[in-house]
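Problem: given the chain below (366 residues), write out its structure.
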Amino acid sequence: MDGERVCVVGVGAFVPTRTIDTDRIARAIPGWPAERIVEKTGIRERRFLWDFDEKTGRAIPPPPDANFYPANNTDMCEAALWRALAMSKLPATDLDAIFVVTCTPDELNFSHDAMELHRRLGCREDAFAFVVDDGCGGTPYLIDMARKMIEGGKFRSIAVVASAFTSSLIDRDVYTSELELEGGKKINAFLSMYVFGDGAGAVILRAAEGPGDDGILRSVAGTAHSDLVIRRGGGSTRLPYHASCRPVDHAFVVDGLKVAQSYPTYMKRCMTAALEGHEALAPQIKRYYFHQPNKRVMDHFVARSGLPPEKVACHVDTRGNTSAAGMLILLAEDVERGVVKMGSGDLVMIAAVGANVHYGGQLIRL
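Solution.
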């Protein structure tokens, strides 16, 4: 690794307390019965920030005059970032950049959520603030970019914040529609509403001071091309008031077959590349923090890879798929519980792939 040594100095997470069981989401968004959802995905419940009306199948936003916090995506990101900063013992004014990785921002344009975090935290005017529109693989992808920025010597501290705000999207008309793909294949949108949940995670990366063997030992990222998740609406070519725009265009539609087929290929690529030059350290890895598409896909990959299941952090069966946030939430919760410890030398790996396609991985000594 050239340039500065880059260390993880703080992690934080926020997960809502509202638990939504699979029976309830199946009543709101008809498609599969609850038993089939559990059988196919292994997800028994998920966490939602907003509630929903089972009869209408629509999200219930909190009253605008209510004292409700966190109430949106930015709030969840803020809660996670403050916790990461507290662990790092750094003031927000030390941050040189905030990158928010999400595909569910409160407002689509002008990096709204990152700009609002910058304002709330009182960051320096010359500190960068961007929202990066990305899904599950976006977190290690952005961590790799932030690492390179710090190694270059122009940045010292960067926050990468990742989030998923699924509960605001609930709409029966949108998520029970079919999307037709090229070749005539049709896929239904309800799978997305069954597997995803809400949450945010944050990590603080900082240039190391003095000698040491901690930090990001190896980091990789890559770009490929496959429509694992499709969302056609929202951009200038499919605005809601365009005659050609249909409800399903506003859904995040997961191609479950493509995800199941591509996940092991890209995840193995991430792991192999992240260990390159450090193969002898593989037995020392204490925990793996992977993107969690669903419990069935995770379990199959872990078994097929020959990884010890007790080393692979996983809570998708009770939290849902929290997209880009999942890996950071798992890491933050492990640190909080003492499963791994900052400054201990514990070796961990982060790896993820998602959306259309970004992938990446890191081998990190805490």
